[in-house]
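User: My instructor asked us to take a sequence, write out its structure as tokens, and then describe one feature of it. I'm not sure where to start. Here is the sequence I was given:
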Amino acid sequence: MLDVHDKYMLRAIELAELGRGKVSPNPMVGCVIVHDGIIIGEGYHEYYGGPHAEPNAIRAVQNPDLIKTSTGYVSLEPCAHWGKTPPCANLLLDVGIKKVVIGAVDSNPLVGGKGIQILQKAGIEVISGVLNEKVRAQNVRFFTFMEKKRPYIILKWAQTLDGFVARENYDSKWISNPYSRQLVHKWRSEEDAIMVGTLTAQYDNPKLNVRDWTGENPIRVVIDRHLKLNQELFLFDGTQHTLCYNQEKDELGPQSEKVRLKEAFDLEDILEDLYKRKIQSLIVEGGAQVLKKFIDKELWDEARVFTGNIAFGKGIPSPVISGQVGKQYDIQGDLLTIWHPKPKR
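Assistant: Let's start with the prediction itself. The structure tokens for your sequence are:
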């Protein structure tokens, strides 16, 4: 049987999930207000720049007088600073709530326990750490960004039954089936940015958008060290923002940016720039060389690998990854394997 705090925190987490793909660089947060065992108000952070979960839940309460004898459940510590909206910790004080139950403490240094301190100093009872791991897992992009100072990195590729990502002429269409490709478009709508290397851009001419799903297009990221890519490629069509990392020049266009990096041209330099741009998550879609660089440097948090029901006989080998196999799914004949890095000792 669920602990009473777990029960209401699970609902807050459910609500928070409704903001996926819409609130970055803010975390997903849900809030429920409970009076005598009954939820009288609930809300979540719906979109970046909009009201946070707490004010949305408070506004949903039909009888505000009940809030003074209620408990608030918030999946993430209430913010304690002015951003695009006022501090939620102060709002909870203003409405006179008597107890606040928190899932996880915020890793943002602007919050980082300050929200809890504000509540406790005002005499509000605070319980924290309820379903902490579930909240951190839900907001793994946010916590990775705050704690590792880089985006959450997802590697993705499709490989044949005999272990190739493309033919010898770099043709990779179509290893996976339409259902897998639609799932990839859904993933794109949930992440901030998507990256490809020079060869993938040149030979595949990808659009890297969410045309087979509904949602926001990610920022496109391409590595083109010496700016040799044809500017007529879809990547540069102006339909969504594109960052082109190179060693030649900085140049700002209406929907594209050339970003000149240091001579060393390390992946870390690109990730540092993405971090400065508040890009919390990055899907790396290829090609094989770029994926190998991320794997070799152990710069990845998750890998999503499709194995299609097709064989090439020869071609460009798929990346070799070492980690822990998580879940596996049958996507209408394609095998999707989720990999995670091995825990560091």
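For the description part of your assignment, you could build on this observation: The two ends are 35 Å apart (CA to CA). Try explaining in your own words what that tells you about the chain.
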